[in-house]
Design a protein that fits this description.
The protein has about 290 residues and is of the alpha+beta class. It folds into 3 domains: about 70 residues, Structural Genomics Hypothetical 15.5 Kd Protein In mrcA-pckA Intergenic Region, Chain A (Roll), CATH 3.10.290; about 80 residues, Pseudouridine synthase (2-Layer Sandwich); about 110 residues, Pseudouridine synthase (2-Layer Sandwich). The strands form 2 sheets. Strands 5, 6, 7, 8, 9, 10, 11, 12, 13, 14 and 15 form an 11-stranded mixed β-sheet that branches. The protein has a 4-stranded antiparallel β-sheet with strand order 1-4-2-3. The radius of gyration is 21 Å and the shape is globular. The chain starts with a strand and ends in a 6-residue tail after the last strand.
Amino acid sequence: MRKLIVNDRYNGKNLNKFILDSFPQLNPNELYKALRKKDIRINGIKVSKNTILKKGDEISIYIVDEILEKLPNISIVYEDENILVVNKPNGISVTENSSSIFCLTSILKKTYSYNFLEPCHRIDRNTKGIVLFAKNQQALEILLDKFKNKEIEKHYLAKVYGIPKNKTSILEAYLFKDSKKSLVYISDIPKKDYVKIVTEYTLISSDLKTNTSILDINLHTGKTHQIRAHLSHIGLPILGDGKYGINDINKKFSKKTQELYSYKLIFKFSPSSGILNYLSNKEFSIPINLK
């Protein structure tokens, strides 16, 4: 049995969405079966149908762990005694958060029994692709410092609606994060509580018939939803993005998940990188087929 507490994000939302978001690998049919059997309780009261939730509700789920948390296979891109590079699938957060107890870090720890495993950066739950982990404290401290000093480049591929005027551009703007709404807002001018963001893109290809483009994005700063919100702000929304994209366009292209992939890490280390000197000038990438 599992117990979850409803947070702000799911206040006024459906029970089914809350449970399925919390357990991405749960087959919806198993959830419907549990409801029919009254194996779901809200504040101790058995329920047999989808129900609107309120913040603070306690949800008790009487579904066996093997069904709730069927661990997906995570593809390992590279591994040695200090680091682990994996290809994260869609629908899984990197670390535990208030909306889900099912995350990439816990899956890897359960699957491979690592004594130490910490992510060095994060990507959005619905962004697929490369995530870098440290396998010991010394490596973690070095890698966090490398990210801070811009000695690791994070590259993404995105399919967007629209064709940029410039083939390459370094965009500067300001971002405000509204945690309650799980949204960010972009401004072209400085404002109170807004932080500066820098997003660089290079045009890979474009299709005049469909008015779409594929962009390589190099993040100079790494803020929540930065790529998705920043590209939308300049009129290039990512296809399939239900939050910052255009719903009619997403339907037209039959895209239900965002076409955004973390596909490459480039290590540009300074000579003094401690036990990670051997990673200098290395690059890790995964093939992405954007049609």
